[in-house]
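dumping the sequnces here before i forget
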Amino acid sequence: MYARTVPIVPASREKDGAFEYLTTRKDELIGWARKFSIFPYPFVTACCAMEFMAVSASPYDTDRFGAALPRFSPRQADLLMVVGTVTHKQAPILLKVYEQMCEPKWVMAFGVCATSGGFYQNYAALPGIDKVIPVDIYIPGCPPRPEMVIDGIMQLQDKIAGSRHLIVNDKI
Amino acid sequence: MSASMPIFDTLQERLAPTAGSGLVSHGILVFALPPDALLPTVRQLRDEHGFDVFLDVTAVDWIEQVPRFEVVYHFYSTAHKVRVRLKTRVAEADPGVDSLTPLYGSAAFMERECHDMYGIRFRGNADLRPILLYEGFVGHPLRKDYPKQQEQPLVPYRS
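..and the predicted 3d for all of it:
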């Protein structure tokens, strides 16, 4: 019905100078790539899970940040999201999961319980997961609003983008 | 739910020889009985009066009282749709009562939990390993003399 008016021509292999190469800093390039491929591992233990579901659902669309697809193997994950209260009995499990993750890896403490133990201060609860593993981003709230989580993800993106990315690190 | 329920009158009458007199509190018939009378009373409740559900066992730490602990049992009858509570006191030196595992299989886990939290020893329960706590935990956290903020971490803290 409609005549094709634009002729299809094969892509020219001739060099015309456009985008043949660009210069950038290695850390900026890798940081830019990494900040949009945050594959989270949800270590979900308590009632914050409800808010985690809310933030994972389509209205908040964490895929905008490349952080939507959870990996249920720590070996494939970049971001350990600790969602909820961690007890002393669970702490060895959390440590084992963290140690199984490949570098580079980041940890998010989701909610006050993961941040500091929250209102638990007793025989059972771990007073903050940073007693056991290093934490990159803390999100307070009981539970945090999805907006706070998204803000946390964005701050983590800034942190990833602004940090050094060693291609050959001292462990190799 | 009141004292006028006929099943409560029957129970009061039938259990009086072993459990003493009971009273109705918030719609639950309550008996305070010596530890020796526990097993026969529970057997009678189960076999003769249709109390087929063992709801829970827990304890109360009346610190500074003698005997110190009160072990509390709740039973439910699906036939009569009423609850009965049994309470028995045990001393701090030997906090032991007979296990209800021969009568109710569900008692095994609940007694383990009660042993975790209060250190009540249930004679006849073959498996009193920690169920909510972990191996190596010292003390019983729901006793009133357990320090409120004392932690027993399994993983050494960083820094």
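The mean pLDDT of chain B is 89.
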